Amino acid sequence: MNAAARVRREKVRIQAASMFERSVPTAQIASELRVSEKSVRLWRRRWTAGGTGALASAGPAGSDCKLSVEQRRQLAEMLDEGPIVHGWDDARWTLARAAEVIERRFGVSYTLRGVSYLLHRIGYSQQVPTRRAIERDPEAIAGWHRGRWPSVRG
Predict the structure, then answer these.
(1) Residue limits of the Winged helix-turn helix domain (predicted)?
(2) 51 and 71 fall within a common domain
(3) How many folded domains does the chain comprise?
(4) Residue 154 is assigned to a structural domain of this protein
C-alpha cells in the first residue's frame, strides 16, 4: 500500500472516530464509510482504549530491507554480470543462487521468498524462457488443438 492509500484509510478511521463520539451504531458507520462491520468494531475497540490517536496509521507495513541502498545497487551490478562470473556454469539466475551471492558478498541471509521480494524491489522480475524445445512439433500441437482440445474443454 502506498502512502496516499494509507492517508485515505486513516481519514476513514478518523471519520469513524467522530461517529463513535456521537454513538452512531456500527452497522450505520460501516454502511456510510463503505467498510466492513468487523473493521468498525476493531476501530471502536482501539478508539475506546486509546482515543482518536489509536486510529492513526502505523506507517508502511513489512520489515526494513536487510541491505542498504548502496548494497542493493551493488547487488544489481553483480546480477547484471551474470551467474557465470560468480562461479556457476550456466547463465541462469535462480533464487538460491542469488541468495548465495548475497550471503557471500554481504554476509546477510535471506529465504528464497525474501530473495524474491528483494529482487522485485530492485526491479527484477521472473522471466519466461525464450527458447522452445527442439522436439516441439507445431503441426502435432495444432492437430491436438483441433481434435482433442474441444473434448477436453467440454
Answers:
(1) 89-146
(2) no
(3) 2
(4) no
Residue 100: is its pLDDT beyond 80? yes
* pTM for this entry: 0.50
Residue-wise pLDDT for 129-147, tens only, equals 667 778 888 898 889 888 8
Each as own residue / partner, the long-range contacts of residues 5-11 (CB below 8 Å, 24 or more positions apart, any chain) are 6/57, 6/59, 6/60, 7/57, 9/57, 10/55, 10/56, 10/57
**Burial of 109: CB neighbours in 10 Å, binned 0-12, 13-18, 19+:** exposed
Please indicate, yes or no, if residue 153 is contained in any of the structural domains. no
Structural contact between residues 10 and 54, judged by C-beta atoms closer than 8 angstroms: no
The 3-state secondary structure of the chain, one letter per residue: CCHHHHHHHHHHHHHHHHHHHCCCCHHHHHHHHCCCHHHHHHHHHHHHHHCHHHHCCCCCCCCCCCCCHHHHHHHHHHHHHCCCCCCCCCCCCCHHHHHHHHHHHHCCCCCHHHHHHHHHHCCCCCCCCCCCCCCCCHHHHHHHHHHCHHHHHC
Is position 18 within any domain? yes
For residue 131 the three cell numbers come to 527458447
